[in-house]
Amino acid sequence: MGVMNFLSHFCRSGCRPRPGRLVLVVGVMLTAVQAAQADSPAAPSAREDSAIVLAQADSSQSASRSDARAMVQLMNQLDSLNVELNKLRGKVEELNNSVLNAEKRQKDMYLDLDTRLRRIEQSTTDTAAESQKGTSALSDLRGRIEKLEQAAASGAGPASNAAGSSSPPAGASVNADEAVRRAYEAAMQKYRDGDYQDAIQSFQAIVEQYPGHPFAVNAQYWTGDSYYQLRAYRSAIDAQKKLIETYPNSPKTADAMLNMGSALVGLGDIDGARQTWERLIATYPGSRAAANAGERIKRLP
Predict the structure, then answer these.
(1) CA nearest 243: which of 226, 261, 218, 263?
(2) CA 90/CA 95 separation, integer angstroms
(3) CA distances (Å), 124 to each of 57, 117, 128, 139, 283, in order?
(4) What angle do CA 216, 259, 240 make, to 5 degrees?
(5) 286 FRET partner, CA 20 to 30 A, in 72, 153, 172, 225?
């Protein structure tokens, strides 16, 4: 502003300087202004403020870049943790499936082993029963022969025949026993062939037609076991309960309780199976079924 006032005053004074002199004056004035600005104490302060502002800006940018890098690193770590977590979840699911499959295989193996053992046990029992029946029939036949010989020796044969004319012939009883035996063998063959549904019908026909015959008890037992083979465990338990209620004094009662315990295992009632077998051992301590029950309790999961 000083330069402009000087020029204005110079022009109003009526002076008309030459161009070269004007340029010289303007240069001198500009030099003086620059020297004044250089000597002014405010100039260094302004430069320092600018430097401070620039430094703060650089520091802020550096901090922002550092925060950005830290955030990126954190996100990468989170992604890695998610990947590891998903892998762990997959391993846990695999382990769960493996445990479930192992439990199922163990149960199937137990049921298969139990079935095989019961077949062996029952085969031995049936053989012993058939042998006992054969021995009993032989003893009865010998008794009859001795009576006939005594009657013939005393001459009482005709009178005896006359007195016994109203009684049914002995052959009728033999024919009935033979019919029951054949029906029972046919039903057992169906069981051995795995035709359990037809075997159940055949066994039940024997029970209904000959409820007092010794084969009826066995037929009732094998009815329950056939249901067990079909994995109709509730029906198997009901059939064995019927045997126990209908023939409480039969040796087959212990076998029925043994089979009931196996059916309870099939239903998943481990405690019920254990209690049933413990009751069997307490009720029939010297039986083969009680010994088998003790072994099965040891194999319970």
Answers:
(1) 218
(2) 9
(3) 100, 11, 6, 23, 22
(4) 45
(5) 225
3-class secondary structure, 246: helix
Contacts of 273 (CB under 8 A, 6+ apart): 261, 262, 264, 265, 296, 300
- pLDDT reported for residue 70: 86
Number of C-beta neighbours around residue 220 at 10 A: 24
- pLDDT at site 159: 39
DSSP readout, 24-45? HHHHHHHHHHHHHHHH-THHHH
State the Cα–Cα distance between residues 211 and 87, nearest whole angstrom: 65
Residue, of 45 and 266, whose pLDDT is higher = 266
The pLDDT assigned to 138 comes to: 54
Please, which pLDDT band fits residue 104 given cuts at 50, 70 and 90? confident
Q: Whole-prediction pTM value?
A: 0.50
Helix 214-229 and helix 170-192, axial crossing angle in degrees, nearest 10: 10
Residue 89, CA distances (Å) to 21, 97, 235, 253 in order: 94, 12, 42, 52
Return d(Cα 216, Cα 24) in angstroms, integer: 147
| pLDDT 10s digits, 130-153 | 655 555 555 565 556 555 655 555
